[in-house]
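Reader question, answered in our methods column.
A reader sent in the components of a multi-part assembly and asked whether the whole thing could be modeled at once rather than chain by chain. We filled in our standard form and ran it. Here is what they sent:
COMPLEX SIZE: two components
ENTRIES:
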Amino acid sequence: MTGAETRDSRDWNALSDAEFAAAVRSLVETKCPAALRHPPRRLRWAQVKPWYLTLSAEGWLAPGWPTEHGGMGLSPAKHLIYVEEMERAGAPRLLDQGLMNLGPVLITCGTPEQRAAYLPKILAGEHVWCQGYSEPNAGSDLASLRTEAVLENDEFIINGQKIWTSMAFDADHMFALVRTRKTGPKQAGISFVMIDMDQPGFTIRPIRNIAGDEEFCEVFLDNVRTPLSNLVGPLHDGWRVAKTLLGFERVWSGSPRQSLIVLLQLEQLARATGRMADPVFVDRYTRLALDVRDLASTYERFARSLRAGQGFGPEVSLLKVWATETSQRVTELLVETAGEYGGLLGAQEIADLHLDVLHPFLEYRAWTIYGGSNQIQRNILSKHVLRLPN
Amino acid sequence: MSSETTDSVRMLTDSVTAFVRDHTDHKRGRALRGALPGYDRKIYADMAGLGWFGVLIPESYGGAGLGFQDMAVVLRGLASGLLADPICAAVVLGARALLHGDNDDLKARLLPEVAAGRCLPGLAWSESHLELDPAVITTVAVRQGPNLLLNGTKRFVPGAASDFLVTALAPDGLVLCRVARDAPGVGLELAWRADGTPSATLHLSDVGVAAADVVASAQVGAASVRRALDEALVMASAELVGVMDAALTMTLDYMRTRVQYDKPIGSFQALQHKAADMYILRQVAEAVAGEAAELLDANPDERDRAMMASRAKARCGDAGLQITRESIQLHGGIGYTDAGDIGLYLKRALVLSAWLGNADLHRRRYACLAM
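And here is the structure of the entire assembly that came back:
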């Protein structure tokens, strides 16, 4: 498969899984610059934009979108292969809020005018979107959000503060959940709006995280305006609009890939420093290796269900809990195995290795928190899967 | 998953579910404890009549010639009603060792009897609680004319077995021999497992074995036993998942109905999160046990098979124990009584976790194979 294949020129779903996987690999090998692959940190828009535009030109940018909207129209099975092969080949993560979140929302809940106005610009890389959901006092309890949108003459005037907005400094548009009604159930007074950030009233402050990186931001909205035509779904119905997203993507967060990356580092470190001859270490290492291996078995069950065209329900929360807690445990043993090097910041020369053990340990702290903390996932499991009473 | 579920799995699931619903009776189970044979002969015969013991036996030997995914359905289901013992020991471990051997006459004679529930072959392979390699033994078989003469001691032998299949070191390698329960020179010392089922130490003193009773010659002996052990490990894992199913269901029911502080205790978040963790563990164990059964049905090579079997047994053994322990805790005082049914599941998990090597031993085996 080469770039000679043009957009919509073939039905990807008709390929065998192996053929399709080879096509994804080939695309990355031939079109993605080596310097962009396997980046140690998330790339900025300026860095990743050429690859974004390449994918767009090849018609490979929006695997899950239907073909009539410029996507590849992949089945869940092929979509899974797409994600796995991209990850395996080290393709960098895109600025993907428009592709992953807003696009599917507009396709499901938007008006024809909204789709026509925004979907092509996402595909062209003209609009870079960020997500304005969480607030300082609305984290796990997202529905208590207070950023307020007041409707005046067919225009919303928005005031408030968003937080944990990934890559907001690179975005020019935000989709946000805002409060449009203060009475009644808190979920029933929230609306989903799209906002052009190229206007006065936006203040963006990056938040330096525990690993020393700046990816999340605080975003302050001070009399920011957006037309009523940028309301997605009915007024006050934004909670339901936002929820249409949850589910399908959550299986990705349960992939064993992140655990495997650090398990490999742990194995290299242990071999280089002679720890594989230590039975106490081997016992602990083997427990973790089996936790990771068994995660892969569990992940495969969900993936198979997707491949068979079946969805899954709230039970997918178990995958997030097991995947993230397993990967954290691996990073913990990684730091411990580094001994005193485990207290040093940055990459170190340990035996013949060049290894930064603290960065993954610190970075992975976030995983049990975002996307619904693991405690929220356990609430979901106990209420919606195990049907325990309130 | 369900899309690939075969018709045989679906039919077995239905019939096993109905059987377990109609036959689960913990009062009867309690009465069977601490005495031979340790299982209900009538129910065992009924199960044989349903064809379940022949699932893994080829059609040419009177079985159904189905696979491990099918047998897993039977064992998981029966385990949820504590009705599975001693099926895995007899129709998986014992019968598979016989099948993998090279004595076709004996297969033709015994395997149909196994399927019919009349023969319960008990593999006597273990001599140490710390050794998983069936070739590391001291029991010897010396030639005496046309016969072999066995001397040694075997431990953790299924106490309900009708016939023993004994491993021994002959001059040319490991052989597997059929020994009748009442053969001269056989001494049987019974002990009771945590759930009240019998375990035996087998003392063999100049026990004669005719050539016709050599189940596996030295050419195939060690490989036959290793394969049967791996297969039984995977099926024991399926059984453990069945124990987890029942313990989790019983515990969730209790949490919905037990009221304290004027609320069902299942409404308390600390307990809900414990339940969620139990559920996660069960799902992971189920995924691993399921993958293992699938692998066995796909004719894996020996190393893949061994690693998968140890991985499944390690996960399911630990998860089974953890879930049943937590179940006791969540049941509170009633969980600590002998009258409380949940304790029966903890004891079954203890037995199955220890059987054929616990999680610790299987992690070591996995680590050795992985290096």
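What stands out: Chain B has a mean pLDDT of 96. Strands of chain B lie at 121-124, 140-144, 147-158, 163-170, 173-180, 186-192, 198-209, 214-216, 259-260, 263-264.
Send us your own complexes using the same form.
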